[in-house]
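Researcher: Sequence recovery benchmark, item below. Answer with residues only.
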């Protein structure tokens, strides 16, 4: 159990972070805003801690629970305020191309049967219960910066509606009534960002194969045409869609593009996975503009028949090692592609999509959301919204250390934080005049979290980082106390 010296709380880096992140919280009662910011600061200081642990005292955790129970603050307004802070970060950057990675994760609360409002999460109605989260994470395409979330949908399935209806019933439902509408909603968030930034940036919503949905492309194309611009889509292809004018005997757009001459050849590194060593892969890129027919069942049941004008980029590995599946990415995009270099750029954007999975991983193993004990899905969602914001901050820190190792640590850490980190790590009172590099500071933080930095270890993962951050918070507090004692140097 961590004890906080309460009187120091007001001016910690965590408190300043929370004030900034929730500066536009749309809640009228200012005391509640302050109480929320205080709770957020506690979560930020101790990610993964339970509410009593994070709050540090019985009175403080009671105030926390009262706030969560009051319904005064909704998950939506928490995420909206974080989105405002995210937009401010984007506006302060030089980034021209913004990626909005979207994906769904399942949170399993089967061990919390007393939480009301949860739903089935497996393929059968009785395979555990929990909730789904669909996040929209904004990244810099050039810098790899994590700006934050544009929002997140949090929902549970209705167990009563779980039973499969008559065969084909799903096909007859308009998209607005289906769970898959979340992919369109996330594109709308990206489009909202595009317009909020005055149309001066390229904004690309990036999704995996589950997001290969006719209605999503139709919405994006139509909105861009009528609004004179908007967010684009970049989605891994799940369906080998047919081109207009193609007969049943023809093969589909995948084969069409794969039969074209190669546009460019690139080399990528494939990380180690499932017992297979990391390797270098050579990919051949091909692309074409394709006009795609609306799927027959969309026309039959929903009257949708607008063809889609998209670009298809295929990146296929040549000569993969024996018994290794060749890398093959096929992506649809509304981004116009005029050269092999542009096709390569778009594939690079798609490769950044995994960061939303990294975020969801941090949410589970770092913020330990599945261990949160709250009485209903509404209260759980509110705490989860806060955990999402904390997780995106942690992701940003670990990414920045990897992608811009040379930037000063002061870009991410408060002065007291990097100074106390330096003194603690070096067992000294003599501070350097300049802050250390971010890479250096993150290595030290990771070591506080148990990272050994052996040759075979990869760069520190998010897990050791937040363990280290939790220790640093205490070290910084001790540093602040002793530095202000006249006789303690
Ligand atoms: Mn997915």
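Model:
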């Amino acid at each position: 159990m961590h004890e906080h010296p309460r009187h120091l709380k007001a001016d910690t880096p965590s408190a300043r972070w929370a004030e900034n992140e929730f500066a536009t919280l749309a809640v009228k009662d200012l005391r509640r805003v302050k109480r929320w910011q205080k709770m957020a600061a506690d979560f930020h200081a101790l990610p993964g801690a339970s509410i009593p642990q994070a709050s540090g005292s019985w009175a403080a955790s009671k105030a926390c629970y009262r706030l969560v129970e009051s319904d005064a603050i909704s998950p939506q307004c928490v995420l909206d305020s974080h989105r405002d802070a995210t937009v401010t970060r984007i506006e302060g950057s030089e980034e021209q191309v913004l990626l909005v990675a979207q994906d769904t994760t399942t949170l399993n609360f089967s061990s919390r049967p007393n939480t009301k409002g949860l739903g089935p999460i497996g393929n059968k109605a009785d395979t555990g219960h929990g909730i789904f989260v669909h996040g929209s994470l904004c990244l810099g395409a050039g810098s790899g910066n994590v700006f934050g979330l544009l929002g997140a949908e949090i929902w549970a399935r209705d167990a009563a509606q779980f039973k499969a209806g008559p065969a084909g019933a799903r096909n007859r439902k308009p998209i607005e009534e289906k769970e898959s509408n979340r992919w369109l909603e996330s594109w709308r968030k990206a489009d909202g960002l595009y317009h909020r930034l005055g149309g001066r940036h390229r904004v690309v919503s990036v999704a995996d194969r589950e997001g290969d949905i006719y209605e999503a492309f139709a919405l994006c194309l139509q909105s861009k045409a009528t609004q004179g611009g908007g967010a684009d889509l970049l989605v891994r292809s799940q369906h080998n869609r047919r081109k207009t004018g193609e007969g049943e005997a023809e093969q589909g757009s995948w084969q069409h593009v794969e039969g074209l001459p190669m546009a460019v050849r690139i080399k990528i590194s494939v990380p180690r996975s499932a017992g297979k060593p990391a390797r270098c892969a050579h990919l051949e890129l091909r692309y074409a503009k394709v006009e795609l027919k609306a799927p027959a069942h969309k026309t039959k049941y929903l009257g949708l028949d607008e063809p889609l004008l998209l670009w298809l980029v295929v990146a296929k590995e040549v000569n993969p090692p024996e018994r290794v599946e060749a890398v093959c990415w096929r992506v649809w995009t509304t981004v116009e592609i005029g050269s092999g270099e542009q096709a390569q750029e778009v594939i690079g954007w798609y490769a950044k999509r995994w960061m939303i999975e990294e975020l969801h991983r941090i949410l589970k193993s770092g913020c330990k959301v599945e261990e949160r004990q709250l009485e209903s899905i509404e209260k759980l969602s509110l705490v989860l919204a806060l955990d999402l914001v904390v997780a995106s901050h942690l992701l940003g820190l670990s990414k920045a250390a990897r992608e811009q190792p040379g930037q000063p640590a002061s870009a991410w850490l408060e002065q007291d934080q990097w100074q106390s980190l330096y003194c603690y790590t070096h067992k000294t009172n003599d501070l350097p005049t300049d802050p250390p590099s971010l890479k250096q500071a993150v290595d030290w933080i990771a070591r506080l979290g148990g990272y050994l930095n052996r040759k075979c270890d990869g760069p520190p993962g998010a897990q050791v980082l937040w363990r280290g951050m939790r220790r640093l918070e205490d070290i910084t507090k001790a540093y602040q106390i002793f530095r202000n004692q006249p006789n303690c140097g």
